[in-house]
UniProtKB/TrEMBL annotation:
<dbReference type="GO" id="GO:0015179">
    <property type="term" value="F:L-amino acid transmembrane transporter activity"/>
</dbReference>
<comment type="similarity">
    <text>Belongs to the amino acid/polyamine transporter 2 family.</text>
</comment>
<feature type="transmembrane region" description="Helical">
    <location>
        <begin position="243"/>
        <end position="264"/>
    </location>
</feature>
<keyword id="KW-1133">Transmembrane helix</keyword>
<feature type="transmembrane region" description="Helical">
    <location>
        <begin position="133"/>
        <end position="155"/>
    </location>
</feature>
<feature type="transmembrane region" description="Helical">
    <location>
        <begin position="161"/>
        <end position="181"/>
    </location>
</feature>
<feature type="transmembrane region" description="Helical">
    <location>
        <begin position="430"/>
        <end position="454"/>
    </location>
</feature>
<feature type="transmembrane region" description="Helical">
    <location>
        <begin position="391"/>
        <end position="410"/>
    </location>
</feature>
<keyword id="KW-0472">Membrane</keyword>
<feature type="transmembrane region" description="Helical">
    <location>
        <begin position="318"/>
        <end position="343"/>
    </location>
</feature>
<feature type="domain" description="Amino acid transporter transmembrane">
    <location>
        <begin position="58"/>
        <end position="448"/>
    </location>
</feature>
<dbReference type="Pfam" id="PF01490">
    <property type="entry name" value="Aa_trans"/>
</dbReference>
<dbReference type="InterPro" id="IPR013057">
    <property type="entry name" value="AA_transpt_TM"/>
</dbReference>
<dbReference type="GO" id="GO:0016020">
    <property type="term" value="C:membrane"/>
</dbReference>
<keyword id="KW-0812">Transmembrane</keyword>
<feature type="transmembrane region" description="Helical">
    <location>
        <begin position="276"/>
        <end position="298"/>
    </location>
</feature>
<protein>
    <recommendedName>
        <fullName>Amino acid transporter transmembrane domain-containing protein</fullName>
    </recommendedName>
</protein>
Length: 475
């Protein structure tokens, strides 16, 4: 794309107008003022939801909430598996890759205004075959599987708060119902208001955990009398499977790229996307390192999974009580994006996408209900939180998030470019490295996660009633 074409694409994407509905608009079913034309949603008008109303601050809070909430609860387990220093290094290296891939999301959206999600990237790269392939991976992956992880996290919180008052399967079902209600919120602009509550609650719970654990005489899972050994490892010597499983957990914690596409698509000012993304990435990286380092340093081999179990029964209940809105909003964000993909694809090009018609609402609730039901089944089928996090990160975290963005950079900046420079060659080398690293982590991480699931044995029974709020992750 030439510089002129690039500028025209920006102009087309940002063109905002407010006018009365024309005869053509009324023939399409629109009656109110047309506020904006979007390449994905069509004419956004007063008769329907505003799919381009997300503010910069709202984008930051949703991005941050998408990355801080689920995987971070298993990060101390990663430190235990690989050691303190390698744990920090793994987080930083993966975050560098994810930040670059997230930056590429914004660049892709500006160059190609008709792109709504990573599945459209597949279409740009390999036509209909690429679109369908990534559609399947996308729906199974960062959205539905992560939504399943979020349902499991909410059930864990309910177990902790109630002292396992009833069967875990009941709490999983309650979490699914709550998820359906939140997922059915129509636009990310509306979701952003609740995301404030979710982000504040999860950050407050994490900070409480970081403060309380060092003040304890010993971790909750350690022997409560007599001497005890943290067995702290600055550098551990894990098996290949354990190391790859730990890396996959970090990928799970940070691979929110499909959600970032949706955020970029609904922002009022997509030019602000990169600034918002860098702020959220900085916050997420700081909290990942802080939580992992502090909890593992003070608990060692007695780290609990999820991490709040390390704080003892009372503070575990308090932490989970504070964190529930944040965990619920993680479920909302990921299930919402999955449902909206199906919704947009079903109604794209029709008046029903951006207008509150009967078909509009029936399709929307069918999408949110379907995604929630599938996520509920996933959560019930793999009821071990750390294992599910690792498996999702391995199977789909890089394959759906990182690999397509490496190829997209090559398509837009290198392939077919007759004026290649040293800068473009270096950029191509980096994009190729990101792609190959993503493939390696997909294959290796899946192996490690499967081994972990086999080793879990009967601890992962389907529709289990067992308490899932504080298992100890001893090696």
């Amino acid at each position: 794309m030439s510089a002129y074409d690039h500028d025209k694409a920006h102009e087309k994407y940002h063109n905002v107008e407010v006018r009365s509905a024309s005869s053509d608009d009324r023939e399409k079913g629109f009656t109110g003022n047309v506020k904006l034309h979007d390449e994905v949603f069509g004419d956004i008008n007063e008769d329907g939801p505003n799919y381009r109303g997300l503010s910069d601050l709202g984008a930051i809070v949703i991005m941050t909430k998408a990355m801080i909430g689920l995987g971070i609860l298993s990060i101390p387990f990663v430190f235990m598996a690989v050691g303190l220093v390698p744990g920090i290094m793994v987080i930083i290296m993966i975050q560098i890759m994810m930040t670059w891939a997230n930056w590429q999301v914004g660049q892709t959206k500006l160059r190609h205004p008709d792109v709504w999600g990573v599945t459209d990237v597949g279409r740009k790269l390999y036509g209909r075959v690429g679109e369908e392939f990534l559609s399947i991976a996308f729906l199974l992956s960062d959205m539905i599987f992560i939504a399943g992880s979020a349902i499991l996290a909410v059930s864990t919180a309910l177990n902790a708060i109630s002292l396992h008052a009833t069967c875990t399967a009941v709490f999983v079902a309650v979490a699914a119902v709550l998820g359906f209600a939140l997922t059915s919120i129509k636009t990310l602009q509306e979701v952003s208001w609740l995301s404030w509550v979710g982000a504040i609650s999860i950050l407050a719970a994490l900070l409480m955990m970081v403060v309380v654990v060092p003040l304890q005489d010993r971790p909750a899972a350690a022997p409560q009398t007599g001497p005890w050994d943290k067995d702290l490892k600055i550098f551990n010597n894990p098996s290949v499977a354990d190391a790859l499983s730990g890396v996959s957990t970090v990928v799970f914690s940070t691979a929110a790229i499909p959600a970032f596409f949706s955020i970029a698509a609904e922002m009022k000012n997509p030019h602000a996307y990169t600034r918002c993304m860098l702020i959220s990435e900085g916050l997420a990286t700081a909290f990942l390192v802080l939580v992992g380092t502090v909890i593992y340093y003070y608990c060692g081999q007695y780290v609990a999974v999820p991490a709040p179990g390390s704080a003892g029964v009372l503070f575990k209940r308090i932490c989970y009580g504070i964190a529930i809105p944040g965990l619920a909003m993680s479920l909302c964000i990921y299930a919402h994006v999955a449902a909206k993909y199906i919704f947009v694809r079903t109604l794209r090009g029709t008046k029903h996408l951006a207008t509150n018609t009967k078909r509009h609402w029936i399709t929307w609730f069918s999408c949110t209900g379907g995604v929630t039901i599938i996520a509920y089944i996933i959560a019930s089928a793999i009821p071990i939180f750390s294992t599910l996090c690792s498996l999702v990160g391995a199977l789909f975290g890089c394959f759906v998030s990182v690999c397509p963005m490496g190829l997209m950079w090559l398509k837009d900046n290198y392939w077919g470019n007759p004026n290649k420079t040293m800068k473009s060659h270096l950029g191509a080398a980096w994009a190729g490295f990101v792609f190959l690293a993503g493939i390696f982590m997909t294959i290796g991480g899946t192996y490690g996660s499967v081994v972990a699931m086999i080793n879990a044995g009967s601890a992962g029974q389907l529709w289990s009633c067992a308490d899932n709020s504080g298992s100890v992750a001893t090696s």
